[in-house]
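Dear support,

I submitted the protein below through the web form. The confirmation email said the job was done, but the results page showed an empty box. After a refresh the structure appeared. I'm attaching both so you can tell me whether what I see now is the final result or a partial one.
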Amino acid sequence: MALVLDARMPKDRQLDYYIGHVYMGTQAGVQVHGLALAALLYAGKPLAALSEHDFVRLVAMIKAPNQYHPLRQPAALAERVARIEALLAGRCKPAGWSDTLLQGCTHKDGGV
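What the results page shows now:
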């Protein structure tokens, strides 16, 4: 499917589609789709008005939106955000290409 999509849609349009449709959990029993709606519901402001930290919080949710839900799982989200921010700041590295949990970003590595 990815090969077909790549052949028919430019990368920037693919990214726009993803940003507008990515599943971001449920809130009050309603599925949240798209970063713009998630920004409004979870941060209380438009996507363009988010701070870098607020944006990282949304990005951190993408892996498992209900597991890292900002209202129901704030501690899990905070830990994931700290790992991502440590990675972005160059204070740690993933344990390998499959380390999507960023287990390589631990206390001893300068991460969480």
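Response: this is the final, complete result; the empty box was a page-load delay. The helical segments are 2-8, 11-21, 35-43, 52-61, 74-88.
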